[in-house]
Amino acid sequence: MRRRTFIKAAGASGVSALLAGCTGSGTDSTTTEQSGGSTNTTTQGTTTGGNKPTLTVGTYGSFVDAPSTSPGPWLKEEFEAEFDATLEWQTPDSGVNHYIERSLRNVESGADLYVGLDSQMLVRIDTKLDSELFTSTSDLSRRDDVNEELEFDPKERAIPYDTGYISLVYNESYGDGGFTAPETFDGLLDSEYSGALLAQNPTSSATGQAFLLHTIDAKGEDGYLDYWAELKENDVRVLGNWEDSYTAYSNEEAPIVVSYSTDQVYAAESGEDMAKHQIRFLNDQGYANPEGMAAFADAANPELASEFMDFMLRPEVQAEIATRNVAFPATTTAELPDDFAKYAHEPPEAVTFSYDRLKDNLSDWTDAWAQEFASK
Amino acid sequence: MSGIPVRRVARFFEQRLLSFVAGLTAVILLVLFYYPVATVFADAVLEDGGLTIEPLVAILTSEFYLVDIIWFTTKQAFYSTLASLALGLPAAWLFSRFEFPGRETLRSLTILPFVMPSIMVAIGFVATFGRNGTLNRVLSVVGLPPVELLFTLEAIIVAHAFYNAPLVARIVTAAWESVDARTVETARSLGATPRRAFRDVVLPQLLPSIGIGATLTFIFTFASFPIVLALGGFQLATIEVFVYSKVRDLAYAEAASLAVIETVISIALTAVYLRYEANQRAAGGTANPLPRQSVLPSDVTPKSTLRTAGIAGYTAIVGLVFIVPIASMILASVTGGDGGLTLSHYAFLVERQATGASFQVKPLPAIVNSLVFAGGTLLVAVPMGVTMAILTTRTYRGRGLIDVLSMAPFAVSGIVVGLGLLRGLVFGVDVFGTRISVTGALAIVAAHSVGAYPFVTRNVAPLFSRLDGRLVESARSLGATRTRALLDIELPLVWTGVVAGAAFAVAISIGEFDSTIILAEGSGSYTMPVAVERFLGRRLGPATAMGCVLLAVTSLSFFVVDRFGGRWGEL
């Protein structure tokens, strides 16, 4: 039995309490929960009482806590009902960076698996860490159900569970109406689209990064910087994040925004005018950004983590994830509701960079872009 | 029970209270600021355990970083400071010299921009200054051509003024109200014109407060980041944008080097200001503030007409820069996807509160936590700030250094502090084989206090330096302890500054995001700004509703702080 000591949030005072903080050893991590004035203490880690094991899953905030829908609560309920285990979500603000940072500082990961990896993150992990943060999982019964085209980890640590496509969303009723987005990357350079496009900072936003990578794929390593110089000349706006650009788009600051090809799902939900949510796949392509899950190398419950991953790939669970995360399933066996395809659009052709290409180039490509675009 | 031992014990603590608080301040700063920040800054000069200057040199020899980033950041901060002064000083004049209905309420509300999450400001600004915004609609009604303000340097500067002009106004108003009317009357009786009396008597007493307002504005806008990208765009990227990008890419050597350079510039500016402030010996007290006059003149003269027109024009600008964006935020929180009015975003908050899972962020705990932390910050930051103010107004060797070090929390990038807290506190430190980590409510209060106490110090220190030292000496020679003299003599005399600082402390605590989100992770200690961020999704409504809750709660708490704080001081 591991030793645990807790800080008491209420009643503790002065410097001794502050410094005492919480002490623990080994893989323990301790948190103090305070809500509504009452204080209670929760633990996360391996076991909580009796023999019921706890599976700790790291993920990004909106996977469990989005204002519209998110798969987290449903997954927890279903998994716990079936496996007689407790599922605990961890949602550090910096996402997977939090765990990389822990590893860099020689602190145990404190979780069993992470949900929400993409190839860019894997590149970051493999460039910055000498040790293995994640381990490969091979013994899943549904591993072969995963659509091969979505596989993005050559080391087979990350198993795809859904995918999104980054595309343009445009407003048909912009200006005097009858607006339509260009069909090609070159079309975006036309003077009629001056100031028409809102994109996002590729150094901090997933959609912004995908759009930059798509331009590199379309224009080539040697051509994308020139292309962006021309986009800049044509008054493209690269804002901080998706929220910034979507706020501006919703206020009709500009008629085109870089977003997800599932944009209409949300629009339909809140009864918006579909003319303002038209999807355009430039060059008939969408940039695929599959999301994957992987078990931590130091997971306390690796078997349970495997069971969870198998659970995630079940046909009915895949359908729920797709609907609730508003993305496309990763398996070929998912049982989607009939009206799913009505608002969620798939591109005629999906493009994406392989892990190996990204590993050698991602930082350089992004840095070069940032220096080009931020030069005054 | 005998009274003597109790009095002795009380006296024992009284005698040592100042040293105790000073010691506590040092410990808090070390644990929650200097050590965490050092873990990050070390990356700028350490490589594989050895010292290196390469990352710093790489940046200082890069034309891109020097000209396009650092120089540009300096330039925009300078313009932003000018704009904040231009917008803030007239407000200080109005608040301190005029009487008008709702003056005190309005003055309390000037704190609101401080606590506003940047996404809220972005929403308000796009709705106000955008192509289809309020400004352009008004312009088209009166037949003027539209202005393209968004995604320009000008938009960033106006947004920075939105955040910082209220800061300037609050600080200068406090100083203006403590100008002794008798000094002006003396000048006038000696034949000085009103203009001359203002220039020679009033202005010198205001300059230190204008100086600190300008210095703080420069430092804050120098490290600005989300608002730059939301209203300007990446082509107008500042140093902090690159610090964030590099941290996210885990390129720590570059991130730390940029942050070190940023901090050095801010600290240098702070040192220049503090040197100036130390040389000012403003005279006077607060016994006889200048009388207020009505905004509506009693008789019509060319001069009074001009002044009324000026005040009206200024009010229109304030309406455009402050009132319209805030009204737009409130409007956005009740606008549905179809453009019609709806309460569905607020219904979401109620529903989340009622049915949210334990691991989800709920509105009520966020409100309660914010208020508890703000209260805690008040209790910790005010003693810290007052004690530092006493230390910095004494004369001793190394005082300048203490002065600057105590202001450092303002000068270090929030991103760096956040990363440092993660490394230093959340992950913990190995002490004799035991890992000690500090998170949750206490750590959050302490972190907020670190960010808040310099406001208290800067509001109080100038007043302390004005006090007649003989007052304390007399009290002590009559047998009062140092603490007793402070509580009974000095504090009542500097109370306006304490209240002003306390208001900032509460605002800093309510608005703080970077440290809170890191220390609150997994503990349920999240606050209102964290909830706003969490409720951002593919629909913006729920976040704006939470943002309006934040505005409402903050406004209410400020009535309490300003009103009761002021009364308490009058007792």
From TrEMBL, chain A:
Ranges that cross the membrane: none
Annotated protein name in UniProt: ABC transporter substrate-binding protein
Keyword set, alphabetical order: Signal
Record has Signal as a keyword: yes
Organism, scientific name: Haloferax mucosum ATCC BAA-1512
Bias (Low complexity) ranges: 25-50
One Pfam family, short name: SBP_bac_8
Highest taxon of source: Archaea
Taxonomic lineage of the native organism: Archaea, Methanobacteriati, Methanobacteriota, Stenosarchaea group, Halobacteria
Molecular function as annotated in GO: thiamine binding
NCBIfam families registered for this protein in UniProt: sfuA
Coiled coil: none
One GO term (biological process): thiamine transport
InterPro entries: SBP (IPR006059), ThiB-like (IPR005948)
Signal peptide: none
TrEMBL record, chain B:
GO CC list: plasma membrane
Domain ABC transmembrane type-1: 70-273, 367-561
Main subcellular location: membrane
Subcellular location(s) per record: Cell inner membrane; Cell membrane
TM spans (from-to): 17-37, 77-96, 108-129, 149-172, 206-231, 251-274, 311-334, 371-392, 404-426, 432-456, 493-520, 540-561
One of the protein's GO biological processes: transmembrane transport
Keywords assigned by UniProt, alphabetized: Cell inner membrane, Cell membrane, Membrane, Transmembrane, Transmembrane helix, Transport
Domain of life: Archaea
Listed InterPro entries: MetI-like, MetI-like_sf
Membrane topology term: Multi-pass membrane protein
Similarity comment: Belongs to the binding-protein-dependent transport system permease family.
The protein, known as: Thiamine ABC transporter permease
Record organism: Haloferax mucosum ATCC BAA-1512
